[in-house]
Each structure stands twice: as structure tokens, then as C-alpha cells.
Amino acid sequence: MQRGEVKNPVTVLILTMVTCGIYAIIWILQTVADINKGLGREEFNAVKELVLSVVTCGLWGIWFQWRLCESVVKLQQAWGVKPQMEAPILFLMCIFGLGPFFIQQSLNAAWEQGTPGGAGGFGTPA
User: Fold this and answer.
1) Is the dihedral of CA 108, 113, 45, 92 positive or negative?
2) Among residues 39, 52, 48, 31, which one has the least CA distance to residue 2?
3) Confidence of residue 119 (pLDDT cuts 50, 70, 90)
4) Looking at the domain assignment, is residue 125 inside a domain?
5) Total domain count for the chain?
6) Binning pLDDT at 50, 70 and 90, where does residue 126 land?
7) Which domain, by its residues, includes 59?
8) Does residue 67 contact residue 99 with C-beta atoms inside 8 Å?
């Protein structure tokens, strides 16, 4: 398990809005790689997720967002950090366009406050 990259959540949200979502695609690809590193296994295949989202006209993307939110919570627990919000609330933030902000904020908490393997003492690794 390795730390991912800490990014400013406000910058992520602003770049997503300014680029009409193009940055969100780049951010998702980077975030998927960070989550895979953080969990120590390949939870997601970024190319597969992107292709299936396009082929299904976004339906797979909704499912992917749900799984991504669940993985963020699992990652925080695996790193010994209390999740800032549960997966359903995080998913709701994604629906309202605030997902990148809250997902990045949650990942930053794991990278900055957590320890690989959950030595922080909260939750059980997934």
C-alpha cells in the first residue's frame, strides 16, 4: 500500500468546472491509480471504466461513481482514518457535481493522517 498524491480539492473542483468536465476525466484516471496504490490491489481498471461509461451512455459511469465512493471509504478505513462521510453521502455529492471536491478531500485525509495498514486504529481494512 502506497500513498497517493495530495491535491487541493478546491483546485480540483474549479478545474473541473472551468474545463467543462474535461479535467474531471484526467482527475478520475489519476484518482483511480491512487486508490489502487492505496489499497494495494487493482480495484479499478481506469480504461475499462471509461470505455464502459461511454458505451453505456453514462450508465456504467453512475455505477462506477458508486463503487468509487465505497472504495474511498474502504481506503480511509484501511489507512486508519475515520471516514469523513459514508459512501451514500459521498455518492450524493457526486450527483450534485461536488464529488471531486469531497473525494479528493477524503483521499487527502488518508494520505496525510493515515498509516498504511490502518495503524491509526480506526475501522478494519477492506
Assistant:
1) negative
2) 39
3) low
4) no
5) 1
6) very low
7) 9-113
8) no
Residue 123 in any domain: the answer is no
Reported confidence tier of residue 53, pLDDT bands at 50, 70, 90: very high
Nearest 10 degrees: Cα torsion 60, 66, 68, 70? -150
Backbone angles phi, psi at 116, to 5 degrees: -55, 130
Cell numbers for 29: 484516471
Residue 5 has pLDDT above 70, yes or no: yes
pLDDT at 120 exceeding the cut of 80: no
Residue 18 lies in a domain: yes
Say what the pTM is: 0.85
Name the grid cell of 6.
495530495
For every residue of 40-108, DSSP letters joined together read: TS----HHHHHHHHHHTTTHHHHHHHHHHHHHHHHHHHHTT---SS-HHHHHHHHHTT-HHHHHHHHHH
Residue at grid coordinates 479535467: 23
Query: Does 24 reside within a domain?
Result: yes
In sign, the C-alpha dihedral spanning 46, 48, 53, 59 is negative
> Do 84 and 122 contact (CB within 8 A), yes or no?
no
